[in-house]
């Protein structure tokens, strides 16, 4: 990097970092004589940004990211037609003209053949990684994708199914929470179950939790090893892996069976939950025969009435004699009851939870019963039922307790139970979506994305409207429209823009290799063209050694590439875009979004070229415009931009019109100038219009937003709606209906997943599923006595910045980054000392690293940070770091009903000679 002792010009360029889902965060780039030299906080945002204008350590790596000597700096074409880990791709540099010709010729021929192939699957597929963050860097590419038509987003990279997956799906279902957080600024007591927020929550979470600690809140960290979050919590509960549902069921037992209804938030349960709905002898709601509406017991009139009867006073608990009711099962099968006993959903819950005592849970979770009981009591006491708070003139309940779940707790088997239990724990004390309590952050499956309160509409049975994939005979999608089959298999994921990427993406990979015998659907094909950007499934998914062989089969892969990583090693074309500090884009900020981005403002922020692009890398908006032009889609592309596909706001709306002439090609600055004007006009309701030049100087524009928008419950109250808690009558029915459809088509390979659809979840042996998977694969579980888990690294955003030397340097000072964390006593019993080279072996393979001995980890548990074991990514390939992903299977048995799985695997460990591991 050139440096000068007497700089001629020093500039501070405002921008944003959104490299991980905890963003966006604000920063300034210090530019000395045209060279980016430092990342600094942007204190101009001090009063509006929850982290007061600061970024995390990862953003400080962006300078090196820009000047990384290993960057791909001009388009490259593959010359070796053979693809494989041991095949050098033989990339040769080509001009942008040639590269764009190649890709547009391919796309044009695909268009001529038809957008979908004979199996009904899109011929073009695309994979974007890391929780949607690539969208914050891809300029106007979304407008090109919209202009194109059907694209298959089926091939995932671990985001989605290995991410906080069940939370995404059930969270939005129950309370419009794509991710879920505590209302940290008001919280007094947080039970954090495997949520590693001090490492994963970015500066907003870290700032908020630090402030909360100063205020005296208590956080209890429940997790098998002492993460950095555990280390700065008041208490660490080292739970046995994958037993969290049992722990949470026992908490519920203490509340409903030992403490009892009188101690809970009776008004909330009565008015905002389905607790009073009467359940009949067949386990379905008793319904009014005429209207089909669920019945509840009206204490005022002493009879069963439809749930929405004016003036009714519902009984929360009890058993009642009901005459002339009906129930409605799957496929509209109706049953008539002359007389039936109706049991309130709440009473059903109490009876169901009786067996789940802390003593019962203690033996499963390896947590003393007294600890579980105490935590439940502390939770209840801190909920301060009855207390209120005034926020912006509204008096709202104050319930300063929350339960949060990390990604390995809310994906895969057991995650449904955890998400249910978490939401129920909040419901029981009235803390769901009320100040101090458990809050959803944003919505992705529902709309609109930037205000989840507006997504609340009245639906059936007194609940919010939901948009399931149909399971009825007439509308069920028997022929998949995408390779991960989300519409066919997963009703709750719906079918909006984000649904497909949140489908069971591992199935798309697995079914390329082999389909079940009773598959009975068109055979999955490979897409003609696959686009990838900011994703590296060859490292981030499971069973990565095998996965890479599937990646090698794709006939034409176009990678927007930063370096030559393990996935684009198999690409046909590398298109290097100008990255973080070199390109132009505007995104929305503020409101409530992901992790702990709860703001009291909303607005837009600009990312701008602080420095000239390195080499012949190009702005993504320029690349997108060229693709649109060369594929004859310019008009559709411009129209998509005009509709707002590029970011900030539609370019034309009531009161303003900055729309682009759809027939013409527009420059990068011209496009974003229009977005700048439209966004500021829209946010200020026409009072202020700012152009690109203004934004280049000021960086962002925001308007105040009431904090009451953080809380969903007042919106439900206004609309007279209830949360679908505690009894999942609808999920039960949908599961049965899905089973009917699959079985009519003689498909039984999803039967185990169907078992997850339950009205009240039962504990089943969740960890035992991992043992069973080993048996099914022909192994012996006792040969793999330890659990291996993953945990996030503060310094790395998944594998995205693994090639940045500064991150490596910082990370080396943080425990665990040099190898495999293991309990010192376990190590001693195996003859392993700190720093020894060890082999961690599962039934599918081995990974190698140095032992990092610690007391803060269960004796039966090993932990590997992040996702490494790179073999192509420059720099990272020399780390010698192990990876869970190399040895965790991609497996149908370990896939839950939502289609997700966990980053966890049973292993054996032994000391090896260092030479043995050279591979
Ligand atoms: N063992 C383990 N596995 C995991 C996880 C874990 O914690 N442990 N986490 C899981 C989760 S939650 C997720 S969301 C997924 C995420 O996994 P992925 O979706 O695969 O995301 P990344 O690993 O961030 O992808 C990074 C790739 O993007 C490239 N890249 C970085 N910056 C740029 C850029 O500016 N331009 C271009 N063109 N490319 C760039 C990097 O070189 C890298 O190859 O991983 C999952 N896998
Ligand atoms: N610095 C940084 N921040 C990030 C990311 C990143 O890569 N780096 N990625 C972002 C993304 S995509 C996501 S999805 C989020 C994820 O955010 P988190 O869910 O907070 O991430 P993890 O660190 O993977 O947390 C998982 C924790 O669960 C624990 N765990 C594993 N198995 C079990 C179990 O069976 N029971 C219990 N109780 N605990 C268990 C592990 O010990 C681990 O510490 O982070 C986001 N933020
Ligand atoms: S948490 Fe760090 S890496 Fe993630 S967006 Fe914020 S500054 Fe960037
Ligand atoms: Mo994620």
UniProtKB/TrEMBL annotation:
GO terms for molecular function: 4 iron, 4 sulfur cluster binding; metal ion binding; molybdopterin cofactor binding; oxidoreductase activity. Residues 10-70 form the 4Fe-4S Mo/W bis-MGD-type domain. Keywords: 4Fe-4S, Iron, Iron-sulfur, Metal-binding, Molybdenum, Oxidoreductase, Signal. CDD domains: MopB_CT_Thiosulfate-R-like (cd02778), MopB_Phenylacetyl-CoA-OR (cd02760). The keyword Lipoprotein does not apply. SUPFAM superfamilies: ADC-like, Formate dehydrogenase/DMSO reductase, domains 1-3. Pfam families: Molybdopterin, Molydop_binding. InterPro entries: Asp_de-COase-like_dom_sf (IPR009010), MoPterin_dinucl-bd_dom (IPR006657), Mopterin_OxRdtase (IPR006656), Mopterin_OxRdtase_4Fe-4S_dom (IPR006963), Phenylacetyl-CoA-OR_N (IPR041932), Prok_Mopterin_Oxidored (IPR050612). It comes from the Bacteria. Belongs to the prokaryotic molybdopterin-containing oxidoreductase family. This is Phenylacetyl CoA. It comes from Aromatoleum evansii (Azoarcus evansii). The lineage of its organism: Bacteria, Pseudomonadati, Pseudomonadota, Betaproteobacteria, Rhodocyclales. The gene is padB.
């Amino acid at each position: 990097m050139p440096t000068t002792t007497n700089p001629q010009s020093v500039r501070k360029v405002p921008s944003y970092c959104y490299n991980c889902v905890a963003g966006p965060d604000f920063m300034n780039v210090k530019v000395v004589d045209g060279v980016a030299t430092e990342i600094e906080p942007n204190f101009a945002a001090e009063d509006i940004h929850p982290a007061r204008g600061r970024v995390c350590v990862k953003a400080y790596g962006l300078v090196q990211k820009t000047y990384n000597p290993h960057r791909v700096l001009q388009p490259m074409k593959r010359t070796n037609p053979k693809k494989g880990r041991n095949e050098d791709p033989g990339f040769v540099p080509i001009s942008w003209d040639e590269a764009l010709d190649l890709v547009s010729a391919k796309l044009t021929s695909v268009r001529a053949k038809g957008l979908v192939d004979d199996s009904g699957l899109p011929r073009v597929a695309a994979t974007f990684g890391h929780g949607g963050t690539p969208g914050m860097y891809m300029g106007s590419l979304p407008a090109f994708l919209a202009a194109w038509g059907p694209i298959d987003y089926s091939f995932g990279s671990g985001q989605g199914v290995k991410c906080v997956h069940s939370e995404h799906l059930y969270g939005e279902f129950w309370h419009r929470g794509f991710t879920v957080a505590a209302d940290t600024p008001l919280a007094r007591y947080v039970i954090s179950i495997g949520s590693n927020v001090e490492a994963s929550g970015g500066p907003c979470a870290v700032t908020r939790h630090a402030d909360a600690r100063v205020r005296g809140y208590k956080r209890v960290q429940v997790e098998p090893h002492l993460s950095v979050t555990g280390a700065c919590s008041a208490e660490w509960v080292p739970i046995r892996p994958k037993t969290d549902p049992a722990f949470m069921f026992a908490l519920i037992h203490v509340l409903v069976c030992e403490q009892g209804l009188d101690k809970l938030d009776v008004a909330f349960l009565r008015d905002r939950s389905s607790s009073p709905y009467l359940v009949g002898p067949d386990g379905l709601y008793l319904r009014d025969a005429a209207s089909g509406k669920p019945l509840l017991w009206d204490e005022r009139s002493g009879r069963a009435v439809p749930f929405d009867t004016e003036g009714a006073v519902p009984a929360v608990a009890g058993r009642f004699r009901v005459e002339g009711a009906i129930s409605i099962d799957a496929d509209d099968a109706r049953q008539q009851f002359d007389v039936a006993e109706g049991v309130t959903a709440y009473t059903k819950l109490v009876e169901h939870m009786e067996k789940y005592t802390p003593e019962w849970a203690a033996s499963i979770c390896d947590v003393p019963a007294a600890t579980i009981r105490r935590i439940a009591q502390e939770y209840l006491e801190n909920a301060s039922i009855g207390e209120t708070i005034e926020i912006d003139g509204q008096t709202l309940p104050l319930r300063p307790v929350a339960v949060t779940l990390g990604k390995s707790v809310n994906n895969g088997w057991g995650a449904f139970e955890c998400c249910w239990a978490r939401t129920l724990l909040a419901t029981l004390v009235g803390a769901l979506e009320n100040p101090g309590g458990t809050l959803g952050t944003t919505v992705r499956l529902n709309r609109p994305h930037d205000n989840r309160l507006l997504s609340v509409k009245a639906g059936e049975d007194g609940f919010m409207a939901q948009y399931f994939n149909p399971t009825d005979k007439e509308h069920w999608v028997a022929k998949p429209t995408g390779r991960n089959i989300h519409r066919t298999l997963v009703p709750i994921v719906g079918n909006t823009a984000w649904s497909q990427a949140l489908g069971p993406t591992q199935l798309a990979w697995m079914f390329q290799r082999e389909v079940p015998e009773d598959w009975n659907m068109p055979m999955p094909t490979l897409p003609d063209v696959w686009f990838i950007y900011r994703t590296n499934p060859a490292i981030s998914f499971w069973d990565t050694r095998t996965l890479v062989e599937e990646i090698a089969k794709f006939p034409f892969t176009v990678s927007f590439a930063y370096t030559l990583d393990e996935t684009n090693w198999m690409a046909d074309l590398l298109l290097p875009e100008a990255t973080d500090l070199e390109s132009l884009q505007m995104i929305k900020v503020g409101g409530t979004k992901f992790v702990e981005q709860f703001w009291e403002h909303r607005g837009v922020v600009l990312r701008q070229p602080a420095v000239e692009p390195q080499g012949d890398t190009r702005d993504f908006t320029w690349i997108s415009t060229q693709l649109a032009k060369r594929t004859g889609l310019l008009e559709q592309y411009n129209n998509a931009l005009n509709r707002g596909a590029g970011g900030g706001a539609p370019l034309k709306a009531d009161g303003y019109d900055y729309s682009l002439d759809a027939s013409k090609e527009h420059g990068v600055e011209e496009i974003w100038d229009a977005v700048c004007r439209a966004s500021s006009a829209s946010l200020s309701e026409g009072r202020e219009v700012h152009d690109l030049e203004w934004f280049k100087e000021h960086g962002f524009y925001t308007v105040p937003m009431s904090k009451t928008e953080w809380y969903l419950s007042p919106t439900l109250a206004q609309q007279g709606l209830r949360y679908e808690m505690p009894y999942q009558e609808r999920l039960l029915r949908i599961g049965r209906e899905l089973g009917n459809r699959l079985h009519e088509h003689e498909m039984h390979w999803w039967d185990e997943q169907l078992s997850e659809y339950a009205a009240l979840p039962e504990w089943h042996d969740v960890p035992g599923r991992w043992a069973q998977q080993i048996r099914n694969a022909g192994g012996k579980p006792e040969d793999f006595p330890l659990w291996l888990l993953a945990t996030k690294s503060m310094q790395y955003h998944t594998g995205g910045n693994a090639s940045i030397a500064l991150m490596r340097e910082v990370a080396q000072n943080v425990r665990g980054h040099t190898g495999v964390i293991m309990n010192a006593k376990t190590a001693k019993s195996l003859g392993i000392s700190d720093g020894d080279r060890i082999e961690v072996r599962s039934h599918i393979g081995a990974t190698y690293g140095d032992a990092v001995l610690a007391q803060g980890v269960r004796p039966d548990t090993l932990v590997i940070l992040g996702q490494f074991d790179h073999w192509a990514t420059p720099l990272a390939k020399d780390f010698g770091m192990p990876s869970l992903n190399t040895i965790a299977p991609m497996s149908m048995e370990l896939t839950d009903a939502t289609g997700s799985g966990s980053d966890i695997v049973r292993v054996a460990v032994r000391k090896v000679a260092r030479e043995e591991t050279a591979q």
